[in-house]
Design brief:
2 copies of one chain form a homodimer.
Chain A lengths: L2 H11 L13 E6 L2 E11 L10 H18 L3 E11 L3 H17 L4 E8 L7 E11 L14 E5 L4 H9 L8 H12 L5 H7 L6 E4 L3 H12 L2 E5 L7 H7 L3 H10 L4 E6 L4 H10 L4 E8 L3 E6 L2 E3 L18
Helix pairs in contact in A: 2-3, 2-6, 4-5, 5-8
Chain lengths: 328, 328
């Protein structure tokens, strides 16, 4: 049984509407008249979600950040986190992890409320879990199911940086200068989901999700959940200067960026009339949004490059159950 | 660094009042005028919190039950759970686990809202995490810190059954008949925290906690947190008939019961005048409560046996970081 089969079976148990069919970034539980509780739990496993020699402080950062990214995608404000930590007896690692945890809690301004600590045998791969709880206004918790024909598709930030950072760490690319290299590795190790932007965008958008597995696969999930077709214009996928230095900006580089994952940017759809308001909102938050495609009636994902249709790559992004850190 | 040292360092990070200094069963977060959110995350590790050959359905049951026990101790009503599940590639085990999970969710009447699934190497010990979210009335969320001199100390249910069940599974005791053996093993594998009783007791008690690590160690934690002394009269510790068949009811058997842990019963203190109301409440819930001691000014835990003081055993119960399943 692979993860996707197990998750299908779990869906049979998760029939409460708040579970959103286990197809959204987070559970959304109506708790009071004007308040929704947004709940997410993401795990990191050594060798799967981070490299064994990643600095422990960045592992703590990532553990918090990937969960904050789920809250950001639902426009939620963090209320607190609970951590499940498996100790394996490496003092130095664990102390450095705590330093990174302290920093992440401070930067994301979220309190550690509790959790559990257990001891694992030293040979076991580390596995870490974090639950994040957030609150959102009832009227503005975007789902993956709300994209509508005619919507435009947007992303926040730049795409592919984390994937290029991983490729650099694994020696799959070697062309970046020191500044670009540092920026890309930092994007991989210390993703920076923008909670404020998520909260401000939430009332303006139709569908919204975070890009954790790859722009294309996450877009295809929105298309499927919304029962619409989504088209992405690859030349519009925003790249950072560091990414362009390392990977270029030709079609193959854009495609790699769009399938890389670990971006923890926001992917959302909105009426085309909302475009200016979205750009202005991002600017107020110190970020950027870019229009990358549109929604139409139909099903599935399609791609173009400067106006010409191009076929979908075989692999759109991370699938549950794949070893992320093997070269695709 | 052992778990208790790590937890001490975490306390330095968990300074929000809702975290209750990481010294309570759960975090208690004020969320609306008359509503508290009760949040807990407990993990189970194979070979530490359950035996590798425990039936997988009972592991799922225990994963839900230990978290429900934390909610019960805070008088909370469950709103939902999120599960972190590490797959290790054993289909049969995982399917049987899901059957047990379905049953536990139904019996405790709590929805599965989300979580995460990851794949672990087959050699890794299984590790499972569950976050439970509950709600409680603001006025009645008991803490561990609220015991007062003059209070009586009570427990719900019977003590030591799970410990005797584990001892039977490990061959450390062999004297039980089949009926007693089955009952005790069931107590170990399928603890039954009483959520309804917890909710009804909450407004009547001062301090309340669940007994997960052992009656004596959990009582000593209430004493310490409340800055009081607690005295336990061992002859008053309620034993089941099955326990008496397996272990007897002499001093050594009562002491073993009081240090065994995994009871997932409630331990609480209340004014002596509340005694009748407590007994009546338990009766209405189909359960029992028994008075086992009293609170006085001072510090620490003391024990007696039919009126005579007896010394504390060296080990009061489970400590974080100890391998629970080695014979003490």
């Amino acid at each position: 049984m692979i993860e996707s089969e197990f998750i299908s079976l779990l869906r049979g148990l998760a029939t409460h509407p708040a579970a959103r069919g286990l197809r959204d970034d987070a559970a959304v539980l109506n708790i009071a008249d004007s308040m929704q509780l947004v709940l997410t739990h993401d795990m990191l496993v050594e060798g799967v979600h981070y490299l064994p020699d990643d600095p422990p402080g960045t592992v703590a950062w990532k553990l918090v950040a990937v969960n904050m990214s789920d809250l950001a995608a639902k426009g939620a404000q963090p209320l607190g986190v609970l951590m499940g930590f498996a100790m394996t007896g490496d003092n130095e690692w664990e102390l450095a992890f705590l330093d990174g945890l302290r920093e992440a809690l401070a930067v994301f301004d979220v309190p550690l409320l509790g959790g559990d600590t257990v001891s694992m045998p030293a040979y076991a791969p580390r596995s870490l879990g974090l639950t994040a709880i957030g609150s959102a206004q009832s009227a503005s918790v975007p789902s993956r199911t709300a994209a509508r024909p005619g919507d435009r598709v947007f992303v926040s930030g730049t795409i592919g940086d984390a994937g290029a950072g991983l490729a650099l760490l694994q020696g799959r690319i070697t062309t970046a200068d020191e500044t670009a290299r540092a920026a890309l590795i930092d994007a991989y190790r210390r993703p920076r989901p923008d909670l404020q932007l998520g909260q401000k965008l939430a009332p303006l958008v139709h569908a919204m999700a975070d890009i954790s597995d790859g722009l294309l696969i996450d877009a295809s999930r929105i298309a499927e959940a919304s029962n619409c077709a989504i088209h992405i214009a690859l030349e519009a996928v925003p790249l950072s200067l560091a990414y362009e230095i390392a990977e270029g900006k030709a079609l193959d580089a854009r495609l790699r960026a769009a399938c890389a994952g670990d971006d923890y940017c926001l992917l959302f759809t909105a009426r085309s009339e909302a475009c200016q308001a979205l750009i202005q909102t991002a600017k107020e938050c110190g970020g950027t949004v870019a229009e990358v495609g549109q929604v139409s009636s139909g099903t599935g994902l399609s791609l173009s490059w400067n106006g010409g249709a191009i076929p979908l790559p075989e692999r759109l992004g991370h699938q549950h159950g794949e070893k992320r850190h093997q070269a695709p």
